[in-house]
Amino acid sequence: MDVRTTGSTLLLPLSGMSGLPLDQVNFVACQFLAFIAACLLRLYWHPSQTSPWVRHVIAASLGTFLIIFCFGWYATHCFVQVLLCYAVLTFASVGNIHKFIFVLSMGYLMLIQVSRIYVFGYGLFSTDFSGPLMLMTQKVTSLAFQIHDGLAKEEADLTVDQQRFAMRARPSFLEFLSYTLNFMSILAGPCTCYKDYIAFIEGRNFWIKETKFDGKCLPGRIEPSPLPVVWKKLLIVASCSVLFVTLSKTFPAARNADAEFIASASLSTRLCYLLVSVQAVRPKYYFAWTLADAINNAAGFGFNGYDENGRSRWDLISNLNIWKIETATDIKSIVNNWNIQTSLWLKRVCYTRVPVYPTAATFALSAAWHGVYPGYYMTFSCGVLFIHASRRARHFFRQLHLGWTPPQLSRVIVSWLVTQFTVAYVVLPFLLLAVEPSLRFYSSLNFFLHIMVVLTLLLLPRTFGHIGSTHSQLPVTKATILGKHKDSVTGPSPVDTRPCPIHNDDELCTHSNQDVEVCASSHNGSAWPQG
Length: 531
Hints:
- By secondary structure, the protein is mostly helical.
- The protein has helices at residues 12-18, 22-43, 52-71, 76-91, 97-120, 130-152, 160-165, 173-181, 194-202, 227-250, 259-264, 267-298, 322-326, 331-337, 340-351, 358-370, 374-399, 408-432, 435-444, 448-459, 478-482, 516-522; strands at 211-213, 216-218.
- The two termini are 30 Å apart.
- InterPro entries: LPLAT_7/PORCN-like, MBOAT_fam.
């Protein structure tokens, strides 16, 4: 039995009975305590009965207790980061506040990540204290950029997304503590936007405009019950916990790089094991993120309006779509539906703000945010190449007229296998952490996917005319198209000549900054690299 933890040992007997590490038991117990508190917050400390000040105090106090219970004195790092960042938010100029906060929070996080290697080596606790620190880094940097947008920029210079979240005033100390330390997201996220959180605390998150569905008129302010969605998510949590405990022990990912396994197993066996073992890791993330989503929903946070049938949606801060991930037939679908809130954070603080090489910069930030283990950088550096190669190949075959179309079922099965295997191949170093086992695995397969990717990038052209046509198409710029575009409300939209952050870099896109959110909704998520 593994009893390593810096947190409370109160649940050590339960750890012994379950056979799970104590830090995992503490994490699960704290999350279910947070779930109970979330229900009480909605039922007994409802905004109609309780002042925002009281709700802020409850959220921050309980979050502080949970993080201390789980991580003991290591929770001090989170408090230090919070206090330092609030000091900068209070005294720094709005013109540079986002830069100072970004450097401070990312620098402090990376310092802690480096210390983890030298203090703990590669034998980490399965739930280590850097997790909450990573979430706080997301929150404070998001808030700093939103303050900068609201106080230092003209509204005409902001995208629709930035206009929505721009802050016109700095938060109070209590509001900042509640936002960064609230019990609903302190342990497993997700990262939420400050304005959405404050609207929830003050009870304004259910205010919607009057909308009609099939002749039915919904009132301007209603509060649908989250219970059906919460129970559904709890059922998913229970299923994922069983799958994780069963599969992770049966198919450990580290075995892919085991020298004896490489020498004794056939190539087909190893490829099948690679696919299964990486798939077996996913239920751990499904469990943590779905439970976190259920906690927020139980408190009344996460309402996202209504669908076309008039049913309430509770996916405002959801972090994943399990069905779309497991049935994905292209890498983009997995990226769009995995760790969605981190993807949005990367987009808002990096992708849409970096003037050159935004994709590479975003992958670099994602890797640095995750930590300093070499395996992380191997995965994310490969990810840049694999995504560009997949775009190039997809564009090529779309233009190629083969004269026949394979059966739909065959195409789906083959696409699914190729996609899932490619993701497993790229993600394995992220799980192995170290360079040596990762290189041992790749060299045993002769780096064959890496070679295919490089050949794809070298041999296939970046842009295409219609293959088989006697006249190749001249490239059309987005500026040419957007110059003719008129917004029905605001007039001409500001032109963004960089690739649309939703569409692939090589695709022609007619979306301006003002249209990015519309484009995002049409793609069912975001297309930015993430962890």
